[in-house]
Amino acid sequence: MTDGVGTADAPWPVGLLADKLKGWIDRLGQVWIEGEITQWGPRGQNVYGKLKDLEREATVSFQIWSSVRAKLPADLKQGDRVVALVKPDYWVRGGSLSMQVFAMRHVGLGDLLERLEQLRRQLASEGLFSAERKRRLPFLPSTIGLITGKDSDAEKDVLRNAQLRWPNVRFRVVHTAVQGDRTVPEVVAALKQLEDDPEVDVIIVARGGGDFQNLLGFSDERLVRTVAAMTTPVVSAIGHEADRPLLDDVADLRASTPTDAAKRVVPDVTEELNRVRQARTMMFSRMTQRIARSSDEITGLRARRVLAEGDWIVTGREDELTRYVARGAELVDRTILEAQSRLAEARGHLRALSPLRTLDRGYAIVLTGTGAALRHVADAPAGTTLTVRVTDGAVAATSDGPAPVGRRS
User: Fold this and answer.
1) What number does CATH give the domain 112-267?
2) Which CATH code for domain 14-107?
3) For the segment 65-76, what is each residue's pLDDT rounded down to a tens digit?
4) pTM higher than the cut 0.90
């Protein structure tokens, strides 16, 4: 059998191709790679899993033999970001390619922390963490949005504690991934969905704690900027103390645990009723004191002489009042006399100026039919009806026309 290139007339056996592939792959040697563990399956003392590229859709399988596993960190698990020393290994019998792991450790945490702190400083300089931009939570939200893992302890803690405090509280629950690659896009989509719901008054993002790497999604810049741009208040309840993702800084309220978030968002109906009763008791007590104080003041006023014995106001000024009455009568009489005197005087002046004084001396006034005084002979031709006014009345007359006027002797 030749090792030349297989042809249609002289094809290679599958075993030959497999041997050649294994030979080529074995010559590749060891290489350090970086990725995320998406599958971690212990089988006895060995481990079989998969490692995914951090940016591209590329995955390789790996196996860790028991001799190597004993030297690796005990806390390695699915979702961890790691660097590994691997050597490609082709399994001839199964026709599969995998990576044999000789060393594996978490990716350099120092680098991650440094990048995280740089992003924290950048966002802080933009004012995204400023206390002035944080929104106040409503006293009693009508509906609470909850973003959390499906059937997670965090979901149960929030719902149970909220309903214990206020049985009628309502929730809009959106389930998302809370670790791994799907965390950021799913949480961002959930935030936008609840932001567009007009009935949602506040949103809680809850997760039941976790190690540093599993919480990295909650420090993603896209998620943080989404929260900063929202108008609905957001509560971060990631449930950790040692590590602080950027979501805690940009959220309007940071709760230490999901249980704490429920207590901070939902008021306790029992406590509120006690406060109402205390307020009513205090108001009743103060009103009672105010009424009693006012009653005492009124009693004190009534006990004063000015109100208890009102007659003294009149009796004490009786003489003075009599003098004022007499003086008033005297002034009225004097005023009347003076007025009568002025009236008589005016009447005399008027009488002196009146035409009647002339009539008293024997004169008369002749009036025409129109009531005008007769001044000229021509105004009374023969037959004109006239009225002759004298001092004690009037006499009717008829004109005979002009008469000769005698000379005075």
Assistant:
1) 3.40.50.261
2) 2.40.50.140
3) 999 998 888 888
4) no
